[in-house]
Design brief:
Helices cover 38% and strands 27% of the residues. By secondary structure, the chain is α+β, with helices and mostly antiparallel strands. β2 and β3 form a beta hairpin.
Length: 346
């Protein structure tokens, strides 16, 4: 029913994504270039109707990672499929064809497993279908499974009023303080200022940060396509907070950020400015990126989740990450990740 082809055609890829409007930028051609620049293997697949051999039904960008615990393939927020495939409930059928293709190309000999971190909306039928073809729940996720998204297709007053009373008050208070300034930049040289704040946050909160090289390449490559901005929050001229925003598919994505301990509501003013700028740029949504669904206040992401949700919006919940083992080597990785999850209490 479906035919899989390798591709390197950016124009076709971009045209398909622009038409389908996915909920993430991790299947964007640019994201593959970022991963490639870091030494990872990139495989881009086009999915066609085998009967017509002309209708592009989907795309799937796969990243190959080499790790001591076992080499693996990752499908980050993919595959991205046409509305027709989704309506016809053919998601699992597409995944079967992708697995077949990978085995024909001998990827199963170089990688221990493939992790599917899909952007398909959560539903029991697709999860059950994946389990039938020998996928199993992954010990941990590789990219966000739960996102918080704010609809920007409203008036400025409506956007403000849908915030919690606390957030609305803090935004209004911040707007009255001229010494709280927001700077927006496209300059690559500014990435070092971003990194100082981001790295400081990682040390204080004790989480493993993304690498400097990845963040720099992300800003550079998306920036070259006019799809990225850096925002800085300043208190009396001193930078105390920052955010890297990626623009794609009429959505602004709040992907990386950092802040110093500060009592002033600079982070609320920063977010409000990003929201207004995104709306004025024609974006339909502001994606705050990942949140936790845990109700445990001790969860490492609980505070950040409450901050994001305070601006109003709704949950976007994807199918949880699932793994397909190519070899027995997978189980070593499985054990390591189970331990890691227990230690981090995720």
């Amino acid at each position: 029913m479906y035919k899989i082809k390798k591709t390197a055609n950016k124009e076709n890829w971009d045209n398909f994504l622009n038409e389908v409007q996915p909920q993430s930028f991790l299947q964007d051609f640019e994201w593959g270039e970022i991963e490639k620049s870091l030494g990872h293997e990139i495989l881009r697949l086009e999915i066609y109707n085998s009967q017509t051999n002309a209708d592009l039904m989907g795309v799937c960008q796969i990243i190959g990672y080499k790790a001591k615990r076992g080499n693996f393939l990752l499908i980050p927020h993919g595959p991205v499929l046409s509305t027709q495939i989704i309506i016809e409930n053919q998601f699992a059928s597409i995944i079967i064809e992708i697995i077949k293709f990978l085995k024909l190309e001998d990827y199963h000999k170089r990688y221990a497993f493939i992790r599917l971190n899909s952007s398909t909306l959560f539903n029991d039928d697709d999860i059950a279908a994946l389990k039938k073809i020998e996928f199993r729940p992954a010990p941990i996720y590789s990219v966000s499974e739960n996102m918080w998204v704010k609809n920007l297709q409203k008036s400025e007053e409506e956007l403000l009023n849908e915030m919690t009373s606390t957030n609305k008050k803090l935004v209004n208070d911040a707007m009255k303080k001229p010494y709280l300034e927001i700077e927006c930049s496209t300059a690559l040289s500014k990435i070092d200022e971003f990194w100082k704040i981001y790295e400081d946050l990682a040390k204080r909160k004790e989480f493993a940060p993304y690498s400097y090289n990845l963040i720099k390449k992300e800003f550079e490559i998306f920036g070259n396509e006019k799809k990225a901005l850096l925002y800085f929050g300043k208190v009396e001229g001193k930078i105390v907070s920052c955010a890297l925003i990626v623009y794609s598919h009429n959505i602004a994505f709040y992907h990386h950020s950092g802040s110093l301990p500060i009592k002033e509501p600079i982070n609320h003013k920063l977010q409000w400015q990003i929201i207004l700028d995104a709306k004025n740029a024609g974006c339909k949504y502001y994606n705050f990126w990942g949140i936790t669904l845990s109700v445990n206040k001790k969860h490492p992401w609980w505070g950040l989740t409450q901050f994001k949700k305070g601006f109003g919006g709704e949950l976007l919940k994807f199918i949880p990450a699932m793994d397909y083992a190519f070899s027995k080597k997978y189980w070593f990785n499985f054990a390591i990740e189970k331990i890691r999850r227990k230690i981090k209490k995720l």
